[in-house]
Amino acid sequence: MPSPSPAVRTVKTYAVTPRPNPQAPRQLHLSAWDTAMLSVHYIQKGLLFKNPSDLSVEQIIERLRSSLEEALFHYYPLSGRIRAVTCAEGGVTSHVEVGCEGEGAEFVHAVADGIAIADVVGADGQDLPEFLKKFFPLDLAVNFDGSTNPLVAVQATVLIDGIFIGCNFNHVIGDGTSYWMFFNAWAEVARCKAAGKEVVLSQPPVHDKWFIGGYGEPPIKLPYSSPAEFVVRFTPPPLRERIFHFSSESLAKLKARANRECDKGVISTFQALSALMWRCIIRARRYPPDQKTNCRLAIQNRARLQPPLSANYFGNSIYAASTTTTAGELLNNNLGWAAWLAHQVVANHSDSAIRDMVHKYMANPIVYNLHMFDIHSIMMGSSPRFDMYGCDFGWGKAVAARSGSANKFDGKVSAYPGWEGGGSVDLEVCLLPEYMSALEKDEEFLAVVSPPVELGVLLETSSK
């Protein structure tokens, strides 16, 4: 039986308005990658911490609020608002930009009655609890809603023995790399302020947007007469959501198997894991052999461009590259065959390929929405390379990383670093109930999944 949904009470909502940043422009043009995100959900990710023994709840809340204010000074686009610009003639939408007028963000202090860390983490084999969705503000908001809503909204939910920090981050402003760059900078500011040190970010953001040149210069003209033509709402169907853990040892064996079977020696760990998930989810869906299916992989562009973008580029710089086959081919061949398909799409994602995709987009710019996802496919999102467990606000390492309801659909798989590090990976898998039940019995899948880290170990080593 699922646990009852707790009452999440709002104690106080703060408007967080940083001091003006003299380097902030009045408006920030959107790149092709930013513009495409106008109708998908905000990013929703959060971290669960054990209560620090030396701080009161009031002190924790004040440290989070005041350090968020300072972090926003450096990440000034997050204090602005999305705005559609209309032509003087005809009154139709010309383009969309970010106004950097410093309207500010939102910080919510909330309490979840009767909920403990153990309830959030759950036991092995349990679905993620429904109440996680209440730990995030602006639930199911699309990015264009940032025209009236804050571009970042944080909720600090106090539990019996911990605190969950959930953040809604407008996806037009940045991708997962940018999200965790901001989250880590916020934590760094908190540590500096707690120690009475001057705030100097170790990795300051780079706000200069990348444009391809020529007709790719800003602003990007959209083929819509009003935002109503591209804002499309999406509510996820009833899904089962689970976290599956993969130890570094298990993944090493999976990678070795994939390379042995394809006889190439170039398959990465994540390519092997993506191939495994593709095969097992498609097997769980019981498609006919001729059903076409894609495996979509979120791939970073920053280091692939020539010259490369800064690792601290703040914005979107990703593509969901895909490889296609049929259900019959995918399952009649081995893991190595599927992993080779994944490897090829990653290897071919070069500077020239990226520029070609941007040129094609500029010739016919559109705004993506979640209804466009192919229901016969899977999507591998997020990344085990994101430094989620490096976010230390001064009271130790997080116990767990979790997400809300945003950007979820049947076949969405999000990768997190494993808590213990060392190359371990956690996958958050979203499937329709009948497909999840089949995946839980899949022998190929079960042979690779590892037991999660015990809660006692998480609690013992996650606080200072």
Enumerate the spans where pLDDT stays under 50 for 5 or more consecutive residues.
none
Please report the total strand number as a whole number.
15
Q: How much helix, percentage-wise, in residues?
A: 25-40%
Strand content: 15-25%
What's the main sheet like? 6 strands, mixed
The computed structural class is alpha+beta
Descriptive account of the structure:
Helix 5 crosses helix 8, helix 6 crosses helix 8 and helix 6 crosses helix 10. The two termini are 35 Å apart. The longest helix has 19 residues. 28% of the residues lie in helices and 22% in strands. A hairpin with a 6-residue loop joins strand 4 and strand 5. It has 12 helices and 15 strands.
Summarize the structure.
By secondary structure, the protein is α+β, with helices and mostly antiparallel strands. It is built from twelve helices and 15 strands.
List keywords for this structure.
464 residues; alpha+beta; 6-stranded mixed sheet; 12 helices; 22% strand; globular
Topology:
Blueprint: E1 8-16, E2 27-29, H1 32-35, E3 43-50, H2 57-74, E4 81-86, E5 93-99, E6 105-112, H3 117-121, E7 152-158, E8 162-169, H4 176-194, E9 240-246, H5 248-262, H6 269-285, E10 292-300, E11 318-326, H7 327-332, H8 335-347, H9 351-363, E12 378-382, E13 400-403, E14 412-417, E15 425-431, H10 433-439, H11 443-446, H12 455-461
Parallel strand pairs: 6-7, 10-12, 12-14
Antiparallel strand pairs: 1-6, 2-5, 3-8, 3-13, 4-5, 7-8, 9-15, 10-11, 14-15
